[in-house]
């Protein structure tokens, strides 16, 4: 028997078309809560699309500053033996990792749409001592323009449901390294970064992160934590995202569609000669 894809659910719907109705099956993107727990302490609950849960947890713990290096995360275990605990990932942290004593200070309640509620301010991010991302060479605008079609082609679950965000990591030559989908764009980014952390690939210098939808503040923050020098989105960034990108040295690109994009921060990382030839100065 084929294994059920927990990222997709099937339901019966009524379709109206040209004045008539038909009862048909439809595919839905799954959305379920996932709890992260270290011993008896709950580290947070997020709404996500099932799949790549351990990557999601690893990325979340790293980008939110609960751990600061791969060695801080000693073990991850997805609990799926009972119905009541199928959405739980147990985390074993290095004893040197100090969780705040009140137990609630490092807990987060995250929704699929808004990310982590009560997000830290830019001032708090400064105190984390985040380093400016680095890139060995400028990025070619022509290569950037090739990335959105590659992302869309690789969005398997989106192609069936139309209801998921995606985050994709590309090498400097435009090769797709990993793509993750989720009902929440923040979760998709955490899955990608978690994949890199568990694979020992951080920091992600010389890489490009492309996200569907808009480039928000939290996604900019997560990209900087992972050492990604260029973040691109197919839609617009927010004002706070632009402010953070400019302050912490991230190249931020929006409206990457067809043969057009807008550089909101860090234009020095986009090939100057190629830009000049394209009529941009």
Describe the protein's architecture and organization.
The chain has 281 residues and is α/β, with parallel strands linked by helices. The chain has two domains: 32-117, Ubiquitin-like (UB roll), CATH 3.10.20; 141-277, 3-Layer(aba) Sandwich (Cytidine Deaminase, domain 2), CATH 3.40.140. Helices cover 27% and strands 31% of the residues. It has nine helices and 14 strands. The strands form three sheets. The protein has a six-stranded mixed β-sheet. Strands 10-9-11-12-13-14 form a six-stranded mixed β-sheet, with helices on both faces. β5 and β6 form a beta hairpin. α1 (53-63) packs across α6 (185-198), α6 runs parallel beside α7 and α7 runs parallel beside α8. The longest helix is centred in the C-terminal third of the chain and has 14 residues, at 185-198. The termini are far apart. 38% of the residues are buried. Mean pLDDT is 84; it is low at 101-107 and 111-119.
Number of self-contained structural domains: 2
Rg, please? 20 Å
* Helix-strand string: EEEEHEEEEHHHHEEHEHEHEEH
Distance between the termini: 59 Å
Range of helix content: 25-40%
Overall mean pLDDT stands at: 84
Q: Which descriptor suits the 3D outline? A: globular
CATH architecture level-2 label of the largest domain: 3-Layer(aba) Sandwich
Helices and strands: which structural class? alpha/beta
Total helices: the number is 9
Main CATH class of the largest domain:
Alpha Beta
Largest sheet: 6 strands, mixed
**CATH T-level fold name of the largest domain:** Cytidine Deaminase, domain 2
**In what range is the share of β-strand residues?**
25-35%
Poorly predicted tracts of residues: 101-107, 111-119
Let me know the CATH homologous superfamily of the largest domain: Cytidine Deaminase, domain 2
Kindly report the spatial arrangement of strands forming the biggest sheet. Answer: 5-6-3-4-7-8
Number of strands: 14
């Amino acid at each position: 028997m084929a294994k059920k894809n927990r990222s997709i659910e099937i339901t019966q719907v009524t379709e109206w078309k040209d004045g008539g109705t038909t009862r048909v099956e439809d595919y839905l993107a799954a959305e379920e809560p996932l709890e992260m727990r270290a011993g008896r302490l709950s580290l947070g609950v997020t709404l996500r699309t099932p799949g790549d849960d351990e990557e999601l947890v690893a990325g979340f713990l790293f980008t939110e500053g609960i751990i600061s290096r791969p060695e801080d995360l000693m073990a991850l275990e997805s609990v799926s033996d009972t119905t009541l605990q199928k959405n739980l990932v147990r985390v074993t942290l290095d004893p040197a990792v100090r969780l705040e004593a009140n137990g609630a200070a490092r807990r987060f309640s995250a929704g699929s749409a808004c990310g982590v509620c009560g997000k830290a301010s830019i001032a708090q991010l400064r105190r984390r001592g985040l380093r400016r991302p680095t890139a060995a060479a400028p990025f070619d605008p022509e290569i950037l323009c090739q990335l959105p079609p590659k992302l869309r082609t690789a969005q398997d679950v989106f192609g069936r449901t139309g209801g998921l965000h995606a985050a994709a990591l590309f090498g400097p030559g435009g090769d797709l390294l990993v793509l993750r989908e989720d009902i929440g764009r923040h979760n998709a980014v955490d899955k990608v970064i978690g994949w890199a952390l568990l694979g020992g690939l951080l920091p992600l210098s010389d890489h490009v992160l492309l996200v569907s939808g808009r480039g928000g503040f939290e996604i900019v923050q997560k990209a900087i934590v992972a050492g990604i020098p260029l973040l691109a989105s197919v839609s617009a960034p927010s004002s706070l995202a632009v402010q953070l990108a400019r302050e912490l040295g991230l190249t931020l690109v929006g409206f990457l569609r067809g043969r057009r994009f807008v550089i909101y921060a860090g234009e020095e990382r986009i090939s100057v000669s190629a830009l000049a030839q394209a009529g941009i100065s």
